[in-house]
Design goal:
Blueprint lengths: L13 E6 L5 E6 L4 E5 L7 E7 L6 E6 L5 E6 L4 E5 L7 E7 L6 E6 L5 E6 L4 E5 L7 E2 L11 E6 L5 E6 L4 E5 L7 E2 L11 E6 L5 E6 L4 E5 L2 H10 L7 H6 L13
Antiparallel strand pairs: 1-2, 2-3, 3-4, 5-6, 6-7, 7-8, 9-10, 10-11, 11-12, 13-14, 14-15, 15-16, 17-18, 18-19
């Protein structure tokens, strides 16, 4: 049942909503080019927090809180990402200059769990990483990641912050090793199977599972715990190559390690 009355104030369609980590603040992004904050300490009586956040010159596509709730990121069709200081949520203020570098709509943003890295995904087919250790002076981390062949629509960090997932209009999900955010690398081949744009990606709290949602009307679930996958494979593996089979298939002189102990 509804916890309270509808929240009104935006003058055009909503594009993004997200809760602060403590659940007391709601941030919303709109086609009216603004971000609004709402006090939900009492969900039955939500109230606006301060004035709308202005500065974007086109739709706000995505909003994300840092884990400590003190910084908000907003991504826009105007090709920029903006950071906002929420130390006093009733009086939010801009942090530094807009993050520039994308050459098309910015569709998605997410903070790493430690709050030091921000990721953005864009219609320019790239993923960008930013060092936001000092949110007032964000710095681009290396060149953009350009393995996707179409728009990047969704991004998410694993709970340990070491893996990044990005979903794209190329119908794939790409995983990235970002243990060192200054030197990210692809982690394996893209995850394939969807037949339409991948609108959403999310990790489970333990980091062992990734889910992706697509315009093909399906949700796919991916196992991320490699050791667990190996154990499952070995549990159903009944036969390994004998010396006679190795010789039969021309593998006698090829180094061979039993797949399961």
């Amino acid at each position: 049942t509804p916890a309270g009355p509808p929240l009104t104030g935006h003058t055009k369609g909503l594009r993004a909503v997200t809760f602060s980590p403590d659940g007391h603040i709601l941030a919303t992004g709109s086609e009216d080019r603004t971000v609004r904050l709402w006090n939900l300490s009492n969900p039955a009586h939500p109230t606006p927090l301060g004035q709308p956040l202005t500065g974007h010159t086109d739709w706000v596509n995505a909003v994300a809180f840092s884990l400590d709730g003190r910084t908000l990121a907003s991504a826009s069709v105007d090709k920029t990402v903006r950071l906002w200081n929420l130390s006093n949520p009733a009086h939010p203020t801009p942090l530094g200059q807009p993050l520039t570098g994308h050459t098309d709509w910015v569709n998605a943003v997410a903070f790493s769990p430690d709050g030091r890295t921000l990721v953005s995904g864009s219609n320019d087919r790239s993923v960008r990483l930013w060092n936001v250790t000092d949110p007032a002076q964000p710095v681009a981390l290396g060149p953009p990641l350009t393995d996707h062949a179409d728009w990047v629509v969704s991004v998410a960090f694993s709970p340990d912050g070491h893996t990044l997932a990005s979903g794209s209009a190329d119908k794939n999900v790409q995983l990235w090793d970002v243990a060192d955010p200054a030197h990210p690398t692809p982690r394996g081949q893209p995850l394939t199977g969807h037949t339409d744009l991948v609108f959403a990606v999310a990790f489970s709290p333990d980091g062992h599972t990734l889910v992706s949602g697509s315009g093909d009307r399906t949700i796919r679930i991916w196992g991320m715990d490699v050791d667990q996958i190996i154990r499952r494979m070995c549990a159903i593996t009944t036969d390994t190559l004998t010396p006679q089979e190795r010789e039969k298939y021309g593998l006698k002189d090829v180094h061979y390690r039993q797949p399961c102990s």
